[in-house]
Amino acid sequence: MRLKASLAIATAALLGLTACGSGDKETPKDTGPVSLRMTIWTANEAHLKLFNEIATEYKAAHPNVTEIKFDSLPFDTYTTALTTQIAGGNQPDLAWILENSAPDFVSSGALVPLDDTLKKTPGYQFEDLGASPMKLWQSQGKLYAYPFSTSPFGMFVNNDLVKKAGKPTPAELIAAGNWNWDTALQTASAVNAATGKAGLVVRDFDYKSWQNLASFWGGWGAQAWSADGKTCGFDKPEMVEAMTTLHKAIFTDKALPGPGVTADFFAGDAAMTITQISRASLLKNQFGWDLVPLPKGKVGDYAVFGQAGIGVFKKGKHATAAQEFLAFMTSPANSAKLAAYFPPPRTSQQTAETLAKTNPLLKPEQLQKVVVDGITKGAVGPSHAGFAELSQNVRASLDPLWQPQADVKAVLSGVCAKISPQLAKQ
């Protein structure tokens, strides 16, 4: 009941802002000292160091801005925490927004349209922003959040563990034309049997954030729901086959750690992990590693990417200053710096050579195959209006799946029975 109450508060917050915040009125100029707050979900030291360096440079040129605070909220409860702040009248000036909740925020009326500010900023090169990365964040021709990260999922590999299990590395499988989900899961299972370490970890999934499994089921062409958002996809044959394969990999073949078991790839506890290049900063030199594209699936080569936008709230204390800082933070020069962790929407910077300059740990060919090619051919992860409530209903309905004797098809049919009424309202 407490969770449902939180979701109700979050939804009411956005709906309330729609009612009182619609209409793109010009925000007043800020006067006096300005303190800006941006909510984010990373607590990574390297990320925060870069953000603070950019903020320090901005403050030096804008003496009226006395503070720029980056407020880290936990990833798994980020959107609920943010919308609860909004409901309590404590909205930040700027916020990161996950792609899954983009439809709610973009349509809410809570965000300031950014086009005019960005276009008027000298040297900003607004025309360099790619049409595809911006699509999710636009409504009626206006941009309501800057897509600072369009990051495909790839597979980081601990080659040392793979070799200990006597298996060919993913790079060797790719060279032989045999890198697919069958061989990937066989490798993961062999590593667990030979070393006791985890085989494959879908990072940030932890049997809770089910949407991260799109990086897996996308190989079967499965979707959580139809492109128009009205029809459930969990009971479709592609999803049933994908999730049956995953269930067997977890409970029979031990290719993935089961519920309640944690394994950190970057600490050397797993052979492979699915995640994005922003996590490369966690790599140490304690083992030989590689970054490769996702294995081929039933549909052949595929890619899935996550997105994140930065929006400015109309009812923030300093909306004008927040827009101006956003323009500075995402300028061509700073976009290139952010590219070390967050693949940018700027067409001129979506090249392996450009990304390699700020990603010294990654080789240009890795960046080309995983990031550049992934953006070109990939699909964005699940997003939908009312995603917070929808996501919790999916998560609760999937809980019975994470048991050894689960009836996969029946559980997935139950997911659709639960969420279809909500989807039909769209």
UniProtKB/TrEMBL annotation:
It holds the Pfam family SBP_bac_1. Residues 1-21 form the signal peptide. PANTHER family: ARABINOSE-BINDING PROTEIN-RELATED, DIACETYLCHITOBIOSE BINDING PROTEIN DASA. InterPro entries: Bact_solute-bd_prot1, SBP. Keywords: Signal. This is Sugar ABC transporter substrate-binding protein. Transmembrane segments: none annotated. It comes from the Bacteria.
